[in-house]
Each structure stands twice: as C-alpha cells, then as structure tokens.
Amino acid sequence: MKHIKYILAAAILCVSGNAKAQNLNSAYFMDGFTYGHELNPAKEYDRNGYFSVPFLPGNLNVGLKGNLALKDIFMQNGNGLATYLHPDISFDKAMSGFNDNNKLLTDVRWDLLSFGFHAFKGYNTVTIGIRTNVGMNIPYELFSLTKKLENRDYNFSDLGVDATAWAEVALGHSHQVNEAWRVGGKAKILIGGAYARMKMDNLDMNLQDPNRWTLATKATMEVGVKGFTWGEPERKEYESRPGEYYEQIDFDNMDVESPGIGGMGFALDLGAEWDLGKQELLDGMKVSASILDLGFIKWKNVATASNNGDDFIFEGFNNIQVEDGPGTSIDDQIDELGDKLGDLYRLQDGGTTSKARMLGATLNLAVEYALPMYDKLKFGFLSSTRIQGVYSWNEERIGATVSPCKWFEASANLGVGTVGTSMGWVINLHPRGFSLFLGMDHLLGKLSKQLIPLNSHANISMGINYPLGKSRK
Question: Angle CA(289)–CA(293)–CA(299) in degrees, nearest 5?
Fold first, then answer.
C-alpha cells in the first residue's frame, strides 16, 4: 500500500510490470477455440466438451493497452537512461510522446478451473478464475508542469487511477433456437478481493506570481480492502497561517489487518449468433454480438478520503533534483516527484462506507464470412468497445482464420482503435487428447534490456486443455 500517492510512479509500474486484453480477441472466429464462450457465451465448442487441470494455465491472459509507453517516460541520455525530467532532454523532445489524455489499461485473467459439456439441450460451461483490471489516466498538463514550470495558470481534470481485483465463479449455457439462431448467457458470482480508486476532478494552479503559487483541487480516494486503515495522520502547518495546523493522510502509515473478502457481486454475459446461410440469405456469413461483464460488486468497509477544495499555497516542483550525481538516481527522482504530487491532494480521512461499483463492460459486434469455394478459410470483422468512463476504449479488428484440417487453426489480424494500431495472431492445435493455443492480440514489439515492452501495446495468451470426444464437424 505504500506510495499510492506516487501517480507517475504508478504509471511506470504499470508500464513496466504487466505485459490489455481481457480475452484473446484474435481467436473470436475459431470454432475449435476452447474459450470461445468467454468472447461470446452463445458460442458452441466443436467437441463434446473439455476440461482443464486446476491451477495450470488452461487459460492465462495478460495484457497492456494504452497510449502511454515506457519509452515516453524513460529516454536514452548519453550512455545511460534518464527520465523525461532530465535537464539535458529538451522540453519538445520530452513532451513529444504524450497525448492530451494518456491512458494505460491492464487486464489479467487466469482461469484456475474450467470445463464444458453438452447437456440440457445445449452447451454448458463452468469456470472459476481470478481477474484484475487497472486503468490510469494522466493529462498532458501534468507532464508539462513537472517538466517546465512557467508563470501561468494550469488547469486539468480526470487525473486518476482505478484498480480492481476479484475472483469469479461462472456458469454458462448456450442453446440452438433454430437452424439460424443461437443464443447464450453466463451468470457470474463475483468475490471482491480489493479495489483502489483515486480521482482528481479538477485542479487549478495559479503560478502567475513567481513568489506565491496558489492551488485549488478537488480530489477523492477510496480503498476497498478488508481490514484496511489509513493509519496515523500527518500533522502539517498552514503555509499562510504560521502556528496553525491541519491533518492529512500519511500514505506511509497505511496498513491492512486481517485481509479477506472485500465484497460480493453478480454479473452477466449475454450473446447471440445469426447464421445467414442457414436462413437462405447469404451462404457462409454469420453475424454475432455479445456483452460481457454486465454487473457490479458491492464493497464493504470502503475507506474514503477527500479534501475540501479550498485554495492553498503550493511550494511546487521547483526543487526536484534530476541532474546526475549522488542521490539522484531514477528511483530518487520518482520518489521526490511522488512526494510533490502527494502535496497536491491534502486528503483527509472520510471514514468508511459501503459502495456498489460497476465492472467495465465490453461490447462485441462481429461479422464473419467463409469462402464458398473453400470454407476452411474465412474472414472476420470484430468491433470491441470497453465501457468504463474515462478508461473506455474502442477497437476494430479485421483478419483471416484458416483451418485446413480438423485439429489445426491459425489466425492473423490487424486492429485499430482509440489507443492506436496493433497486430494479432493465434495458433490453435487441438488433436484428439489435448488442445494447445498460443496467441497475441498485440505483438510485443521492441523490448528493453530488462525485457520490458517499450510500447504501450503488449499481450500474450496461452493455455492447454483436454477435449472430450471427436470434432463435431
């Protein structure tokens, strides 16, 4: 819990720590993909069923998506690496990689146990897994003022971090309504592990007077972890009223006692498929749609903090040491910058409450077309939209899937959306006895010496499962 106040440090941690893809979208049009039901609960597996071995990577998906990259924060300076704050790095060069709103989104899914089977006049699935979702948004103006303070007014909003971790137990069923239509749904019991949310709604900085900077901000913070406490507050003196003191949260004193279940919730996945060929409209064409994670978690004992939005004198970022020398390593720079950012909030303990929070829902719309002269090759278009407030995103993906035999499938595709372009691929081997897949929605691209992706898109999915019966096609 230490150093939650370090917004930029958290950004760097997210960029360098997790290699977005909640599901492997590149496999959406594969009939032999075991986990097609997690992309659209209406999908039917082409075997009698499958099972995974508990706690092995039956379906492990780790990903990063955004328009903020490691190479935007760290830059080559001479023979070494420096942050964008280093004086030898010009303002124009330092700011060249940043956007109006710099987003970073990470998702991790690990299915601990999963199996599917045909019964009850349809296809059924059971999944137990853990998931994490992290979103971050940093306005351009924050990078600008930390790099080059000018005697002018600054104003920005929507600075924030949102992170949630939970476990889920999901029961799914898909059913063939008639020859052309298939529908499906999945009910999920959600077990909340932890969540943290920091949001700065508005920040006004008046730096016109070089000798007196004033600042007004409205910030809130919530932490939903069982047993979490803010700890002993920090007592500080008012800059404008010597001898008078106020208390604010000391982030170094936060603690967690007797951690456990932080909340419970419920969610639904809904989906449908329409085969135009079977309705004698257009041979080889299917249209499908799904909405995933439509639900909420009710968190108990949420620790809250906020400030009153009053004006106060701010001593600023003018003393951050970024030149080379003792005590000025990258870690020291981040720590000092984090301390300065912490002064922007002046958060005070707001007690505890309960709170219901929606998950980030995902909407998928897809069209696929199998060539009439060679139906083992099909082309597909998939539009995915995450609905999650300031952390929302949209991506369109177009590609081709080939299945030259019953036990092998491969796919390649290109994606474009609100956070840039990407390329994806999947190889799926599913002979009788086992099923093995490996794929990426986003190629890793160039890596640092520490094997950290330098770009903001990175994703890898893998899994091994055990099919039941022969291919049904």
Answer: 165
Contacts of 235 (CB under 8 A, 6+ apart): 245, 246, 247
Rounded distance between C-alpha atoms, residue 318 and residue 193, angstroms:
39
- Backbone φ and ψ of 94, nearest 5°: -65, -35
**CA 23 to CA 461: how far, in whole Å?**
8
β-bridge partners, 161: 136, 198
SS3 337: helix
**pLDDT in single tens digits along all 473 residues of the chain:** 333 333 444 444 444 333 344 688 999 999 999 999 999 999 999 889 999 988 777 888 887 777 877 778 777 776 666 778 777 888 888 888 888 888 888 888 999 999 999 999 999 999 999 999 888 888 888 888 777 777 777 777 788 889 999 999 999 999 999 999 999 999 999 999 999 998 887 777 776 666 666 777 788 889 999 988 888 888 877 666 677 777 888 877 888 887 789 999 999 999 999 999 999 899 999 999 999 999 999 999 899 998 876 666 665 555 444 444 444 455 565 565 555 555 566 788 888 999 999 999 999 999 999 998 898 999 999 999 999 888 888 999 999 999 998 889 999 999 998 877 888 999 999 988 889 999 998 876 666 665 556 666 677 899 999 998 877 66
Please state, in angstroms and rounded to a whole number, the distance separating the CA atoms of residues 303 and 348.
Answer: 11
Q: Sign of the C-alpha dihedral, residues 14, 18, 22, 27? A: positive
What is the pTM assigned to this prediction?
A: 0.84
Q: Please give the structure tokens belonging to residue 411.
A: 């796919």
Specify burial of residue 289 (Cβ count, 10 A radius: 0-12, 13-18, 19+).
Answer: middle
